[in-house]
Amino acid sequence: MAELSTITPVPVDALEGLTVQDVEQNITPWTVEAAEVNGVKQAIDYDKLIVQFGSRKIDEVLLERFTKVTGHVPHLLLRRGVFFSHRDLSVILDRHEQGKPFYLYTGRGPSRGHMHIGHMLPFLFCKWLQDVFDVPLVVQLTDDEKFLYKNDLTLDQTYEYSLSTVRQIAAIGFKPEKTFIFSNMGFMGGAFYRNVLKISSHITYSEARSTFGYEAKDNIGKIHFSSIQIAPAFCSTFPSIFGNRTDIPCLIPCGIDQDPYFRLTRDVAKVLKYKKPSLIHSQFLPALQGATSKMSSSIDNTAIFMNDTPNAIKKKINGYAFSGGPTSLEELRKFGSNPDVDVSYKYLTYFVEDDQEIADLAEGYRKGEITSGEMKNRCIKELQDFVGGFQERERAITQADVENFMNPDYPRPFAALAKK
């Protein structure tokens, strides 16, 4: 594999003369804030998050085992470290090697408008995992959470956002016979709600407050929501797929900011005698302005949205994408550029499959043989093609397709999983 450059965060103990407050970063399910040192935002320190959250780094040994067990070269998001951390991924590989079943679980908080390319990454990865392992995928749309956390939304609005989100997820290439996409507001009841009740009875207010930082002013729906996000991690929530089984674990690809939910999940699983979920965590796609923040749906000029026109993509990359190049051509030829901080280059590492091309781009940029404008043009072309292909597929999604994905009883060829 080609060797890629990465941003190396400044170790906390190397920042002499600074107080702890100067270097804190704040990563929660609702907030992603990089550390600030002397008024300067730093890149998010993912190594520090591994230590803080108690997960494990995905190393070359694990990637080699992945290839051996599956017969597939790891996805580019794996081999380039975008998915960088895990909990018990080896357990999933063991099960696959032994011919034992598991399933995939991921989610999305539906919102007005279209997802941006940062939202696409976990779904692209899930699609690849589903193809490699041939397993069911369940996708939770947390419209109830949106209602609880956004004071300006009605229940009807959040449910409508879920329906439009199903179309977008379907356009990635999933098929309803292997994928169940559900709105919490539309699906919760029966086995789902029974698991929610079991889970909620084993999470104290003190544990929820410690995990998520809730305050007295927060509504009780927020406090209870963790039980709802936990429930799909247990196969008994989906009797139409798994029957009465309780012994099939899941693998959850998610952003590292979602890990607090699933640390609780793993604790509750032991009490309920369910299988603990495994997790694989992704980094955040940086905003157009650089690696100190992530793309935001609420700030248009930080993100490339999946309904952006080719011209809009071009304008955003040219106008906002942080460059690792110097200001003059003379300095470029003399000193080269830095692909480690260049947003256009970073985006290419998420979407260009060819490792050698990525390595050549980095080398040419460092040597001053490739200009910032040329790097941006290469990125613009890649994103225009990706977004354009998505839009074409989305136009082909019908209302019947949406209903099939959301139908728990749609025929899915995993009936054997319902039997021990």
Low-confidence stretches: 1-20
Strand arrangement within the widest β-sheet reads 5-6-11-10-7-8-9
Tell me roughly what share of residues is in helical segments.
Answer: 40-55%
* Annotation, overall tally of beta strands: 13
Question: Between the first and last Cα atoms, what is the distance in angstroms?
Answer: 40 Å
- Provide the residue-averaged pLDDT: 90
SS class: alpha/beta
Number of helices: 20
**Beta-strand content bin:** 5-15%
Computed Rg: 22 Å
What kind of sheet is the major sheet? 7 strands, mixed
Shape: globular
SSE layout and pairing:
Elements: H1 20-23, E1 26-27, E2 32-33, E3 36-37, E4 40-41, H2 46-53, E5 56-57, H3 60-70, H4 76-79, E6 83-87, H5 89-98, E7 103-108, H6 117-133, E8 137-141, H7 143-149, H8 155-170, E9 179-183, H9 184-187, H10 190-200, H11 205-212, H12 220-230, H13 239-242, E10 250-255, H14 259-272, E11 278-282, E12 286-287, E13 290-294, H15 310-320, H16 329-335, H17 343-351, H18 355-366, H19 372-395, H20 399-405
Parallel strand pairs: 7-8, 7-10, 8-9, 10-11
Antiparallel strand pairs: 1-2, 3-4, 5-6, 6-11, 12-13
Keywords: Ligase
Organism: Coemansia furcata
Enzyme class: ligase
